[in-house]
Amino acid sequence: MINMYNSDECPDMITKVYLVVEQIIQSQLETGKSIQFALELNNKLKTDYQELNNLFLARCDMSLDVIFLKQIVEKVKELLVYTEQPLSQIAKALGYEKSNDLSEQLLRYTGLTPAHFKRIREIKLENIRRQQKKI
Questions:
Q1: What is the value of pTM for the model shown?
Q2: What is the CATH number of the domain that holds 55?
Q3: Would you say residue 46 lies in a domain?
Q4: Which among 48, 95, 98, 109 could disulfide-bond with 73, CB atoms 3.0 to 4.6 Å apart, if both were Cys?
Q5: How does pLDDT run across 71-101, given as a tens digit for each residue?
Q6: Given CA atoms 117, 70, 104, 94 in this order, what sign does their dihedral have?
């Protein structure tokens, strides 16, 4: 197979893919509308999804789908720690029919449950309260 990306273009394309992934996730969270990942990636980057997937498999040892799921997990962790949104609300916004599916992905990719990240939030808030009392 011929690789359409030379070694100079690969890091740039990888960065572009990650930016599109972030945009897709943010858009889903803001609108609650599901976005078809492969189609959106093709439209935004004007390149073949399978060719990009092969690039990521070769360079990152991960498929685009896995990268997308890992980025979702990172965003979910962030939302659980820094917002009061329940997992059910986050899951719905990201297009999951059941929050259990998202919970399972969180557990698969981090080894931790949603409750763990909520506990981190509680600890952070408690530390802030303690600091404010000292002032």
A1: 0.84
A2: 1.10.10.60
A3: yes
A4: 109
A5: 999 999 999 999 999 999 999 999 898 999 9
A6: positive
Q: Based on the structure, what is the number of domains in the chain?
A: 1
**Spatial distance between the Cα atoms of 11 and 119, rounded to a whole number of angstroms:** 37
- Cα 46 from chain centroid? 22
Which is more confidently placed, 16 or 2? 16
Short-list 38, 121, 25, CA closest to 74: 25
Give the percent of the chain with pLDDT over 70.
Answer: 93
Structural domain containing residue 101? 9-134
- Spatial neighbors of 105 by CB under 8 A, at least 6 apart, are 69, 72, 73
| Position 63 confidence tier, pLDDT thresholds 50, 70, 90 | very high
